[in-house]
Amino acid sequence: MSAKWAFCVLFCFVASSFLFIIAVTNAKTLYVDDDGGAGVFSRIQDAVDAASPGDTIIVREGTYIENIYVGKSLRIFAEEGYEYTFVFAANSSAHIFEVKACDVNISGFTIMGTKGESAGIYIQNAENCSIYGNNISSCTYGIFLNETRRSIISSNIINSNEYYGIFLNSSNENVIINNFASKNWDGIFLKYSYKNRIENNSAVHNNLGGISLMHSCENIIINNTVKSNFFHGLYLMSSYNNTLSMNRALLSMYYGINVLDSDWNLIYLNDFVNNRFNAKSSGSNCWNSTEKKRYAYNNSTYEDFMGNYWSDYEGNDAEGDGIGDVPYIIAISAETDNYPLIESFLGYEIQEKRQIFDCGEPKNPYPSIMGTHKGTIMPSETLTVSKICIYPCTGTCGHIEYVRIWNASLNVSARWKGYEGAWKCISFNNSFVLYAGKKYNYTIITGSYPQIHHTDRLNLDCGVITCDEFVDANGILHKWIPAIRLE
Fold this sequence. Notes:
Blueprint: H1 3-26, E1 29-32, H2 44-50, E2 56-59, E3 62-65, E4 68-70, E5 75-78, E6 85-88, E7 97-99, E8 105-107, E9 110-112, E10 119-124, E11 130-132, E12 135-137, E13 141-146, E14 152-154, E15 157-159, E16 164-169, E17 175-177, E18 180-182, E19 186-191, E20 197-199, E21 202-204, E22 209-214, E23 220-222, E24 225-227, E25 232-237, E26 243-245, E27 248-250, E28 255-268, E29 271-273, E30 277-286, E31 293-297, E32 300-304, E33 309-310, E34 328-329, E35 336-337, E36 349-350, E37 357-358, E38 371-379, E39 383-390, E40 399-407, E41 410-415, E42 425-434, E43 440-447, E44 452-453, E45 457-460, E46 463-472, E47 477-478, E48 481-482, E49 484-486
Parallel strand pairs: 1-2, 2-5, 3-6, 4-7, 5-8, 6-9, 7-10, 8-11, 9-12, 10-13, 11-14, 12-15, 13-16, 14-17, 15-18, 16-19, 17-20, 18-21, 19-22, 20-23, 21-24, 22-25, 23-26, 24-27, 25-28, 26-28, 27-29, 28-30, 29-33
Antiparallel strand pairs: 31-32, 31-36, 34-35, 37-49, 38-43, 38-46, 39-42, 39-49, 40-41, 40-43, 44-48, 45-46, 46-47
């Protein structure tokens, strides 16, 4: 090797090492404590100002009276959770947390005290933000997304706000999941918003409605409970091509569902129970599934179209298949539910394909060996994930010891709990969303003899999975993909 060539190699190595050190050391963790102290900030805003994009800010228990502006990608979370960490507005006419950057995570705070047009958490023109596990009350708006997309609002308690608990304005492709909204004007309200997923939320005792859509299209409203809201449980106004399924609208003072000047919405497998008026519609909508469903009912299996359950339905079920013999008439309109359910949709076992990311089993899983896999996943459809499973080799105990899935806006992990129950799977503490067309990194550590795809890339109907490296138990490097399933 020439001296000149050796110098170039050495220079490149030193330079790349230097850049690597910079990249690592630039990611900092900053601490905030309202009592102050050495090496910590006493105000959240001071820590935000001092932080660099990608940093984490840990806020210790205490009371903070301030308004926080976040203009860079940061993770801000309360160390002890919302029961011990309070943020009150210093200026009640301003947002308490105002976010104008992508990839911002805010979690674990009790947030209180705005008026006028201000919110507890306000996000403007951003992507990939996560608002998780907060308790927000006594604000004008609880959480307000304005021109924001592909963000997640999950597991928040949003009570006693003047207007909307969660408000999406001109915001698309977001996921609103596992939230509890009570005693607001509206629990969850969408305006000019498209392709959002509203799932597994509870909206109860709100002064106007539970979940409302205005000028909003192509949203999925699924598996929510709206109960004891004053005017309506579910409301659509000038909204089109939305899907509402597996929701329960109960005990509204007026309408279980009120559909006004809205067309081409698909409304099926919902419960409308003991509302003053279970349904009202002025439009042209479909009140049953558009294809036959295979389902089990009273220990027998059937295949038919399926509508909704109406507590005031007066028809019979002569065939005993759980589908009423005559249509249910929707008030005001000429619309009908032609396949009304005889009881709650919970009494029917729907046998349909679940939405999963599945590598499948390889034709030949051998050689098989445990180790650490690292690579990427890019789903072709947006998935809500609660667990990961692996295919073990026949007669073995192949399993996943540890999994981490992450990108700039997501960071989840879980560990194996041993040979108990469904030991081939690991459940995450909270469900999360993988967006269609977005790339996520993974680290998966396996045990015993898992099935393996001996390739570095699989192009599947559900998406693409790659392997950057697999270091087996003997320290040998491969590029092999574990046979996993996300569901």
